[in-house]
Amino acid sequence: MRIEKILVVGSGIMGRGIAYAAAVGGFQVYVQDVSEEALNTAAQHIQKDLATGVVRGKLSQGEADAAQHSISYMTDLAVAAKDVNLVIEAVPEDIGIKKSVFERLDQLTSPKTILATNTSTMSPTEIGSYTARPNQVIAMHFFNPVPKMKLVEIIRGLETSDETTEQVKEVVKRMNKEAVLINEFPGFVTSRISSLVGNEAFHMLMEGVGTPEEIDKAIELGLNYPMGPFKLGDMVGLDTRLKNLQYLHQTLGERFRPSPLLVKYVKAGRLGKKTGKGVYDYTSE
């Protein structure tokens, strides 16, 4: 089976980024979300990213126009899932939500359709168990912002077939990204490291080691990170960062216990850019 039609479930920051990458890669793309407002927001962001790609010389105007026309937006999952070859789920990091989505996808898609999850920490083996096709379930972990980040972690579940893995590797290549094949273990590679760094930054902020600006600058210039842990956390969403840490704390132990200050920020609704305030204040933007 050659993959030509891709459905992205979820139109948030990651979902719309994955849709962008798939469209630029030449795929027919369907973006599904229960919220019409979220879909409209996603369409606006994708259009802006395509325009930026043209300005920066990454895309020709013809390529941007073709990508724009290759994307369809819809709220009805049954309609969106009907004829696709690959589904990439990009819903919140909540195993209950993912279970519900994959159970429905298993019923709504063709038996040949590959089902992928964009989870950054959770088990593709467990997610595959919610379907009758665990051999066709795999994790594709993209990175934010997807239009700029080259890496995709591919994580096989216990039952994932070689054929599924090779097809997904080819999809990543067509998206002009680099794949690494990771053995399944909680947090994979990048999420474990990123979660530790981000959590330690919150500990340092709580201890008064420095301001968010000083800590971010030290990490960026001293360790050559492109973005400091607070900037990254605000972009990804502090609620997402907390959920990842809670899962890793549960599965890997005490070193991943979330910082009390991070917990406090999330309880206060300071989730990052999406709410206008996280570690930094974005209300003037």
Distance between the termini: 46 Å
Number of helices: 12
Tally the beta strands: 8
Q: How would you sum up the major sheet?
A: 8 strands, mixed
Percent helix: 40-55%
Q: Give the strand line-up of the largest sheet.
A: 3-2-1-4-5-6-7-8
Radius of gyration: 19 Å
Order of helices and strands: EHEHHEHEHEHEEHEHHHHH
SSE inventory with pairings:
Blueprint: E1 5-9, H1 13-24, E2 28-32, H2 36-55, H3 61-69, E3 71-74, H4 77-80, E4 86-89, H5 95-108, E5 114-117, H6 124-128, E6 137-141, E7 151-156, H7 162-174, E8 178-182, H8 190-207, H9 212-222, H10 229-236, H11 238-252, H12 260-267
Parallel strand pairs: 1-2, 1-4, 2-3, 4-5, 5-6, 7-8
Antiparallel strand pairs: 6-7
Explain what this protein looks like in three dimensions:
The structure is a single chain. With 285 residues, the protein is α/β, with parallel strands linked by helices. It contains 12 helices and 8 strands. An 8-stranded mixed sheet has the order 3-2-1-4-5-6-7-8, sandwiched between helices. Helix 6 (124-128) links the parallel strand 5 and strand 6. Helix 2 runs antiparallel to helix 3 (61-69), helix 8 (190-207) crosses helix 10 (229-236) and helix 8 packs across helix 11 (238-252).
Short description, anyone?
The protein is built from twelve helices and eight strands. The chain is an alpha/beta fold and 285 residues long. It has an eight-stranded mixed beta sheet, sandwiched between helices.
